[in-house]
Amino acid sequence: MEECSLVRIPLRLHSKGRTALPRFEVGERLYRRCKPEEIENPFAKLSLADLSVNREGPKEVAPLCEPQDVLRDFSVQASQDWLTTDEVAMALEVMQVNEEGTYRYQLELPGAPAPATATCTLQLMHDQEPCNYSHSAFKLYLNDIEVSLANYEAAEGMGAKKYRRFRTQCRFELGRMIIKGQIWLPKAA
């Protein structure tokens, strides 16, 4: 992985050769930004193919990020540290993990059209970036094919109605993880 070249990003956030932490813990906090008016249901209008969060990290290590770090601008062309002042940071909590220590939510919907049974999987992965070691993402898989922004609307081999049901159920699951009443504003410059 390349080194972070953005001097305005605190060194504590740089990946700088650290390996990914694939295991998550029950109770671990995840932070995401959203508009204040969307705080009750921030996933209602989002594409499930692009759900990034910052993870707090395991209890035995120092926190990988602060809640406000999701409000930072990590783009190279940015001229300021904070992305925006019209968004807030909100918290999610990992509620369950499997024996491998990963969060994986799986749905099966029976019925036509082919395939007769469709499987949808939402999986949380530590997806570090050079300037953001805490970066993680919920990956969505439909019949074992990763859903991306390119194929998001056209779910192969499945009717649009069933695909909408999957997205609705996944959004509901994410909504259950929201820690109500906890928001953070950008830090003063």
What's the helix and strand layout?
Layout: E1 29-34, E2 51-55, E3 88-93, E4 104-110, E5 117-126, E6 135-142, E7 145-146, H1 160-176, E8 178-184
Structure description:
The protein is built from one helix and eight strands; from the N terminus they run βββββββαβ. The chain has 189 residues and is mainly β. It starts with 28 loop residues before the first strand and ends in a 5-residue tail after the last strand. 27% of the residues are buried. The chain has one helix spanning 160-176, and strands spanning 29-34, 51-55, 88-93, 104-110, 117-126, 135-142, 145-146, 178-184.
Q: What's the number of structural domains?
A: 1
Q: Proportion of β residues?
A: 25-35%
Count the E strands: 8
Largest sheet: 8 strands, antiparallel
What integer is the average pLDDT?
A: 84
Helix count, DSSP H or I runs of 4 or more residues: 1
- Give the low-pLDDT segments: none
Computed over alpha carbons, the radius of gyration is 17 Å
The shape is: globular
The share of residues in helices is under 10%
Q: Helix/strand/pairing class, anyone?
A: mainly beta
H-E order: EEEEEEEHE
Q: Report how far apart the termini are.
A: 30 Å
Keywords:
8-stranded antiparallel β-sheet; mainly beta
